[in-house]
Write a structure and sequence with these properties.
The chain has helices at about 20-35, 65-80, 110-120; strands at about 5-10, 40-45, 50-60, 95-105. It has a 4-stranded antiparallel beta sheet, with helices on both faces. The protein is globular and about 45 Å long. Helices cover about 35% and strands about 25% of the residues. It has one domain: Alpha-Beta Plaits (2-Layer Sandwich), CATH 3.30.70.1290. The chain is an alpha+beta fold and about 120 residues long.
């Protein structure tokens, strides 16, 4: 049994505000698929026009950096393929995400508090 949770935040390249509700819905589906491949469970997902929050429960055998690289790489490729209009924001880099990310272990705060924080992240109007 394990209880490893991480709060992940990915920011779009140049912090361009590119996501709408359809983009965020598809991102959540892609993240769930990638997490399943790693035997991880996404506990919560929300986002705004230029960043997303993901709370993930992962087993000890998963290197968090590999999970993050896969989440960002797969989602970037699929989103740019499925939503070609995103390309106008990334004419030079041809990448959806910034190279950096936030990953915080969730041990001190109750999961319910973190879920509430992520739920309060607004979706774009």
């Amino acid at each position: 049994m394990f209880a490893l949770h991480a709060h992940l935040v990915f920011v779009t390249k140049y912090r361009h505000p590119v996501f709408n509700d359809a983009h965020l819905t598809r991102l959540e589906e892609i993240f769930r698929s990638v997490c399943a491949d790693f035997e991880c469970e996404p506990a919560e997902f929300h986002g705004e026009a230029n960043h997303v929050h993901l709370l993930v429960n992962f087993p000890p055998k998963v290197a968090l950096s590999k999970l993050v690289n896969s989440l960002k790489g797969v989602s970037s490729r699929r989103m740019r393929k499925e939503f070609p209009e995103l390309a106008r924001h990334y004419y030079r880099a041809n990448k959806l995400w910034s190279g950096s990310y936030f990953a915080g272990s969730v041990g001190g705060a109750p999961i319910s508090v973190l879920r509430q924080y992520i739920e309060q992240q607004n979706r774009p109007v």
